[in-house]
Amino acid sequence: MPASINDIVALCKRRGFIFTGSEIYGGLGGAYDYGPYGVELMKNIRAAWWNTMVYARDDIEGLDAALITNRLLWKYSGHEGCFSDPLVECKKCGARMRQDKMADPTRCDNCSSTDLTEPRPYMLMMGLSIGATANGEINAYLRPETATTTYTNFKNVLDAKPHKLPFGIAQIGKAFRNEISPRGFVFRMREFEQAEMQYFVRPGDDEKYFDMWRDARMNWWINVLGIPAEKLRFTPHEKLAHYAKAAGDIEYEFPDGFDEVEGIHNRQDFDLGSHTKAQSEFNITANVMENKDSTTKLAYSDPQTGDNFIPYVIETAMGVNRTMFAVMLNAYTDEDLGDGKSRIVLKLKPKLAPVKAAVIPLARNVPELLTISNDIVTKLRALGLGRIELENSGNIGKNYRRHDEIGTPVCITVDHQTIEDGTVTLRHRDTMAQERIPADDVTHRLIEIINA
């Protein structure tokens, strides 16, 4: 049976992946804390994205921009004037809803009353009052996305690390949105994490690179995260945003249907054109607001022809929290072992697993077993593969089940035979198969398993 959202929520709390934020004070809608294993899984997903997007390429550079930004960034990006949702309030029960997400725009989703307020814009950005003289007035924002801070650093990156077109800038970081109704566990939150890449191309090459990145990102979901192709689809946008020439979403089949996990957008020259100085000097295709505040020309100078122009942008934008949610849903397996027995196992790709291996002395009160176990743990940790745990509880069955649930690909058991002949038992997560190997071979075997 496929995993439900409730299955994942229960596992996350039970095994320390995700906790409700501010839980001891009743929580806060759309805010979650990541526990010991959630931190590791998120870190591994980030690393998998960064390895593919930055380390495996010569044409993409990294960036980590500030979370708090000058208000002018969001004025000229269009967010300050347009980044809002239509809010409707029920006069009977007080529920607030996004009109465009209501089952019936004339009836309250909560109580079915038709006594609703007229829709009004609801600002999604979180404003800040910064400085001793601010007097509570909004003069800055927490960024609602990472993309705009990438565009405004275009010239900085290009000057520091010159590139010919096409080239990209990648960024992973927090974003904040004042959501009306956070929902779906970590699917829609007020504080979340994005992994976005902006790929700068020549006008005229944009359609080719849009197709390239659509295919590349879909392949990453399948080959790196291990999501079956039949659980994914690419859905073009029927209605395009004001900045887009083309756009679509990679969607994962969640328990309640397909929904977005990553967007691919052809943003044409809207973004660099919106933030550049001296807009009239360039043939900007997109409809941009007149900018009298920018101090920098965000243009590209062709080293061969000397032409200056505003590049087009192909964007890939992935929600890291949603990705973790999809990965856990896909990996969650409730396995029938027969005779009324079952086990929960997260069949994660080994590189994504929060714990790479657990070393388990069969008996906790035998010093020789613990000495050997500690020696193996030390050698495995020296490999730098990720978290290695020592389980010294003496209950081998419970240790196996716990590590099945958190997705540990292999458990290494040290027993009395180890003292006699120097061999240990490797127990494999997915098959529960066991093999006896020399303790000296454990590091080599673990590298093989993680890289499989």
- Into how many domains do the coordinates divide? 2
Low-confidence stretches: none
User: Which CATH C-level class of the largest domain is it?
Assistant: Alpha Beta
CATH superfamily of the largest domain: Bira Bifunctional Protein, Domain 2
The largest sheet, given as strand count, sense and whether it forms a barrel, is: 7 strands, mixed
CATH architecture assignment name of the largest domain: 2-Layer Sandwich
Name the strands of the widest sheet in spatial order: 3-10-11-17-14-13-12
- Helix content range: 25-40%
Separation, N- and C-terminal Cα atoms: 27 Å
- In the CATH hierarchy, the third-tier topology of the largest domain is known as BirA Bifunctional Protein, domain 2
- Given the structure, what is the number of helices? 13
Number of strands: 24
Can you offer a commentary on this structure?
- With 452 residues, the chain is α+β, with helices and mostly antiparallel strands.
- The chain has 2 domains: 5-70 and 143-328, BirA Bifunctional Protein, domain 2 (2-Layer Sandwich); 353-450, Rossmann fold (3-Layer(aba) Sandwich).
- It is built from 13 helices and 24 strands.
- The chain has a 7-stranded mixed sheet. Strands 21-20-22-23-24 form a 5-stranded mixed sheet, sandwiched between helices.
- Strand 20, helix 10 and strand 21 form a beta-alpha-beta unit.
- Helix 2 (36-55) packs across helix 9 (320-331).
- The radius of gyration is 26 Å and the shape is globular.
